[in-house]
Design a protein that fits this description.
alpha+beta; eight-stranded antiparallel barrel; 12 strands; 443 residues; four-stranded mixed sheet
Length: 443
């Protein structure tokens, strides 16, 4: 009954045991216990547990290993104590590789059932028989170098003085011989970073910055960071890694490459020359100059020094009464031949214009003088200028500031009628106020 329990214990152990050598660690030395059961109906034999069972093996390739095993035991056969010894060469095939894998094996050797203790040698011819064996086992890794293994095999040894028998072996194996280039305790086959010393928990890779992310997966291996940012730091906490953040010390947005936009003008502070004043990208984030403060930039303001509105290009709205005057017949002042003297009729018109200019104190006008084709062109040019200046002086006398009045003479170059007739020449001797042509109103 005791032997039956022993068999059960070894059988259960074989379920949980694990590997010997693999391609990763090719050499293995094993030490264990063996259980031998004679399979011969002609004798009365029990089952016996013995020690040691020693083996040495070397992984070759393709799942195959070769090795040798030596076992000792003590049996009771036909009420006689028999010393058992076995030695054999073994070839083994790993069905799979990993922390747990099964294997098959076969071998050839000698088994000795020694009845006479006086026989010379460990395997005397009288008690030793050639043995063929085949079996299966399983192995389980308990550390990088230590394994537990269990196997069972049938051994055919039917020569005189020997018996067919079963042998079960359970023991420990020490595996070694794995190449470890960086000497970090992780074999090259398992080492993701075989040439750089690392840590076992990171498959042989280092964690230089100690952030818990191995260097081979760390986008910033020398700066502690977070897993969310692939191991990179984020000093300003804006969710953008410092290495990708144009403003690593100021929280910003991804749209601005990690920089803030304090004035909200769509230009990041790091390139905005006026970060606290909303401006335009074309002006480096600064507002354009606006001398008159009317909200229309000087570059777009037709009246940069006078308050106006955008609808009128930065100028004040043109006074309707003044526009009406300028567009009517009263805007033309006629002169007599070769004269620059303002007539009484013209003075009456100028008084009306003066009233309008007084009513609209921000208005300015340009007075254009003309002449008929009588006389030389040079004479007519001078005469047209004198006529424009005469009108200006008349307006100044009537109280209009001269700074609001500009003059220009066109001579005979812009006739309003045909100079071949007397009536046409009379019409051309004039000063005419015409909006945006002969008189310009500016707010």
């Amino acid at each position: 009954m005791k032997k039956l329990y022993t068999i059960m214990i070894f059988s259960l152990a074989s379920i949980f045991v694990a590997n010997a050598q693999t391609s990763d660690s090719p050499w293995a030395v094993s030490l264990g216990a063996n259980l031998v059961s004679v399979q011969d109906d002609s004798v009365d034999a029990g089952m016996s547990l013995g020690i040691p069972s020693l083996s040495l093996s070397r992984y070759i390739a393709g799942g195959f290993s070769i090795g040798a095993q030596y076992s000792l035991n003590s049996l009771e056969i036909d009420n006689s104590d028999i010393d058992y010894a076995a030695i054999e060469g073994i070839i083994k095939y790993n069905i799979s590789e990993g922390d747990i894998y099964p294997y098959l094996f076969a071998g050839y050797g000698l088994s000795n059932f020694q009845k006479n203790s006086d026989s010379e040698g460990l395997f005397p011819s009288s008690g030793a028989g050639r043995t063929y064996l085949g079996g299966a086992g399983v192995s389980f890794s308990i550390s990088d170098n230590w394994n537990v293994n269990a196997s069972t095999s049938y051994r055919s040894s039917s020569e005189k003085g020997s018996y067919n028998h079963l042998q079960h072996v359970v023991g420990f194996s020490y595996v070694f011989g794995a190449q470890d280039t960086d000497e970090d305790g992780v074999s090259d086959k398992k080492d993701v970073c075989p040439e750089v010393p690392g840590l076992k928990e990171f498959d042989g890779c280092p964690d230089t910055d100690g952030d818990g992310i191995p260097d081979n997966k760390d986008a910033c291996p020398e700066e502690a960071g977070t897993a969310e940012l692939n191991g990179c730091p984020d000093a300003d906490g804006d969710g953008i890694a410092d290495k990708d953040d144009a403003c690593p010390d100021a929280a910003g947005s991804a749209e601005m490459n990690g920089c803030p936009d304090t004035d909200g003008d769509g230009l990041a502070d790091n390139v905005d020359k006026c970060p606290e004043q909303a401006g335009e990208a074309s002006n480096n984030g600064c507002p354009h100059d606006d001398r008159d403060g009317d909200g229309v930039a000087d570059k777009d303001d037709a009246c940069p020094d006078e308050v106006g509105d955008a609808a009128n290009n930065g100028c004040p709205e043109v006074p309707e009464k003044l526009v009406s005057f300028l567009q009517g017949e009263k805007s033309t002042l006629l002169f007599i031949v070769n004269s620059a003297v303002v007539t009484e009729d013209s003075n009456a018109k100028l008084k009306q214009l003066t009233e309008l200019l007084v009513a609209y104190p921000n208005s300015r006008v340009i007075i254009e003088g003309h002449a008929s084709s009588d006389g030389s062109m040079a004479y007519n040019q001078t005469l047209s200028e004198k006529r424009a200046n005469s009108v200006k002086e008349a307006l100044i006398v009537m109280g209009i500031d001269g700074s609001r009045l500009e003059t220009v003479g066109y001579g005979e170059t812009r006739p309003s009628a045909d100079n071949k007739t007397a009536a046409g020449r009379a019409a051309n001797r004039r000063v005419k106020f015409e909006r945006k042509v002969e008189i310009k109103v500016v707010e």
